Amino acid sequence: MRTAEIREKYLSFFEGKGHLRLPSFSLIPENDPSLLFTSAGMAPLKPYFLGAKPIFGGKEWRRITTCQECLRVGDIENVGRTSRHNTYFEMLGNFSFGDYFKKEAILWAWEFLTDHLKLDPARLWVTVYQDDDEAYAIWRDLVGVPEERIGRFGEDENYWPGGAITHGPNGPSGPCSEIFYDRGPAFGTPDETGPNTGSGDRFVEIWNLVFTQYDRQGPIPGPGILKPLPQKNIDTGMGLYRVAAILQDVEDFYRTDTFFPLIEQVALWSGKPYEGKASVSHRVIADHVRAVVAALADGVTFANTGRGYVIRRLLRRALRHGYLLGLKGPFLHRLAPVVAELLGDFYPEMRENLPMVEKQIRLEEERFLETLEGGLKRLDALLSGLKPGEVLPGQEAFRLYDTYGFPLDLTVEIAAEKGFGVDTEGFQQALEAQQERSRAAMAFEREIFKKGAQVLEELYAERGATEFLGYGALEAEGEVLALLAGDQSLGEAGPGTEVQVVLDKTPFYAEGGGQIGDFGLLEWPGGRARVETTQKTERGIFLHKARVEEGVLRVGERVRAVVDPGRRDTERHHTATHLLHAALRAVLGPHVRQAGSLVAPDRLRFDFTHPEPLTPEELERIELLVNRWVMADFPVTWRYMPLEEAKREGAMALFGEKYGEVVRVVRVEGSPLPGLESKELCGGTHVRRTGEIGAFLIQKEEAVSAGVRRIEAVAGEAAIRFARGILNRQRALAERLSVGESALEERLEKLLSELKAKEREVESLKARLVQAELRKEVALSEKGGLRYAVVEMPGLDGEALRQAADDLVERGADVALVLSEGRAVLKLSKKAKERGLEAGSLFRALTERAGGRGGGKGALAQGAGLDPATAKEALPGLLPVE
Ligand code: SER
Q1: Which family does it belong to (predicted)?
Q2: Which domain covers residue 389, as residue numbers?
C-alpha cells in the first residue's frame, strides 16, 4: 500500500468518525516561541487541549484529524548511521478536545489497524501506563488482547511527553498507551521478548494514544504538579513511515516509496550502490534533503541562528555525504523537484515554492562548496607538512572547523585517506574552550543587565506597567514615579543631568515592533527636560531617556509630556510598512515573510524573505499598489482581541515573536484589489486614514543575506523631499549642460557619442603618429658585423611594440630594442641568431644592468621596468665583438 493511500485511508476513517480533517500546519510553529519546529501532530493544536475553543469555519469542532509534517532535530548525528532515525516525518493523528476519551480512542485504533490496514491482530502488542487499570481493562476485555501481550510501564515509556512528570516540559500531557507491531524474530535479538525490551528492531511502535488530561506545572527538573485540565482530551500519533514500511514489506522506511526514489537517484549520480558503509550517506542525503525542502517551502531561510541554522547544518551534512560519495559539485537542488514530486500532492507549498526552494539550495550549496574548497586546500597543506606516523593537531582540526566550517569527521576521513590520524581529543578541548569563552561573555552581559533591572522590578511590583496613552494623543499629563541614572534611583535631577524618567502614564511610544521610540519634551512649572528616546522594559515600564534642560525634576512632580509632532511622520511610515508588506505578498507571493523592520519619522526599512532581486517592474507594481491604498483614503482601525481569534481571522503575525493572550490587531478598512487586505498584529502607532500617508516612494531594494531582501522607502513629506531632491538634481544637471530638462537625455546621448567619436579620433591619431615614427630614418649602429637599433616610442602597448621591433628588423637591424614607458621588446634577426645570440638571455643580461624583469626565447623577448637610458647604453656592450 502506497504511503499516500495509507494517509488518505486514515484521514477518511476518522472523518467517518465525526472528525474535521485539517491540512498539515506549517513546520514553523505559529506564535509558539518555545518550539523551533513543529515536532508532533498535537503541537499546533496545543491551545485546544488547554481549553481554547477549536473553532474552524465558524463552527466548533471537538474532533480533529490531521496528517502533520514534523521535524525533530535533536539527534541529527544519528540520522543515516541507523535506519531508524530521521528528522522530517509525517504523523497521523486523531484528536479529541473534551469529547471522546480512552475507550473510543482505543477501539478505533484497533479497528483501523486490523479492519482497514488488515494488520494481523496476533502481531499487535500494546503497553499502558503502570497505574492505568482503565486502559488495561479496555484492551483486555473490550478488544480482547491476551494479557501476555499487554505490558505496563512507567513514565519514561508510557507518559507523554516521555518522563514529563519528573523532567518536564510543562504543558498538556498524560498517560499513554502504545501499539507495537511484531515483525518476527528475524528482526530481533534474543533478549527482545516484547515491546521495550532488548536492543533489536523486532517490536516497532506504530501508534501512541495519549490520554491528555493534565497540565504539567512546576520546576524543571521536578517532580512537577499534574494539574487536571478542564477537560479530558485525546492526542494520538501514528508514524506514517513505520506503518508504510510494514505494509510495503520492506526492511525499513528508507525503502518505502517516499524515500527510495531519492536514494536511487543518489546511487545513479554517484555510481555508488546503496549498500554497505556507503549507504549511510545515501540515507543522510535522502532524509536531509526532504527536511530542507519542507522547511524552505514553509518559509525558513538559511541563517546563522535558529531555524535557518538548523537547515544550514542539515544541508551541509548532506552535501558532505555527497562529497564522500564522490558528488563534488552542487547536487542537492536537483533533488528538490524529486521531493516535491514525492510529497507535493499532500504539501502543495512544496510545488508552489519549488523554484524559490531550488534556487536557495543551489546558492547555499555553492557557498558551502567554496568554503569546503578553502578548507580542503588548507588541510592538504597541513597534511603534506606531517611526517609519517604524526597526527594532525587538534588545534588545527578545530581551526578548520571554526574558520572553514569544516566538520571534524570530514577532516578525519580525509586525513585517514592519506594515512594520518587526527587528535580528536585536542579538537574537543579546543571546542570546549571556545564554548567556555562564549558562555563567560554571556554571563557577564546578564550580570550587567540584572543590576539596573532590580529598581524597576520593585517599581513594577508597586505600581505595575506604564499606561500608554499615545494611540490617540500626542500630549498628556503624568506623574514622575522614578528617576534612574545608571543603577541609581534619584530623588531629583538638576539641569544638565541625564536621567531615565518613569511616569505613571505617557503618550510617548516606547521603541518596539520596528518603530523607533518617541522623542519630545517633559514640562513642569519652572522646568523642562528633553526626551531623546523612549524604551520599555520587558514588564512594560516605559523609560524616557531625557536630559534636564531647565529647573529641577523631582519624583512626584506632575509633568506635561509632549511628543514631538514628528511622530505623525513615524505613523505614516508605520502604516505604509503594513501596506508594503501586504503589497509584497500580493505581487511576489505568500512566501514573503517579514524578517525585520525599522519605522522612523524620515524613512522605513523592511526586510523580507525572497530569494532574488526584485525586477524594476515588480517594484513599480508594489509602489503603485501602496499608493492606490493611500489615495483611496481608507480608515485605519485597531482593536484588541484574543490571540486565537486574531489568528483565525488571518491577521498577519510575526513568527518567533512573543504575543500575549490578548493582542492588538491593526487593520486597513478597504483595499485596492479584491481579496487583498492589510491586517497585522501590531502594537505600533498608525495614521487614522491611509490618505494621511500622502505618498509612498521606494528608494532602493537590495540583499541583506541569502534569501532576505531589504526595501527602503519614504512616505509623507519625506517622499516629497526625496522626489524634490531628484528633480533638483535633474535641474542642476540640465543647467550645467545648458539644455532644457526635457532635452537632458538627448544631450547625454549626444555627449556620449561625441565622446566615443573623440576617442576614436585620438586612437587613429596615435596610430598615425606611431606609423610616422616608424617611417623615420633609424640610425643603425654596428658592432662586430651586427647592426643594432634602440628606439624609444611612448604610447605603444604590447602588440604595437612587437610590431615596431619587427619593423626595425625588416629594415635591416639585427638586434632591435624598442622601449615604451617602461615596457621593452627585443627582437633578433636570423643572422644575429646564427651568430649565436639568444633573445631570452640577452634580455636578462639587459635587465641585470638596466633593472626590470622579463624574458623570452629564440628571436623574441620582452619585459618591463627597464630604465631606458641605461638599457640604451648597455646594449652594445652585450653584443659579440666579432
Ligand atoms: N503527541 C504524541 C506523540 O508525539 C502523540 O501524538 O507521540
Answers
A1: Belongs to the class-II aminoacyl-tRNA synthetase family.
A2: 260-437
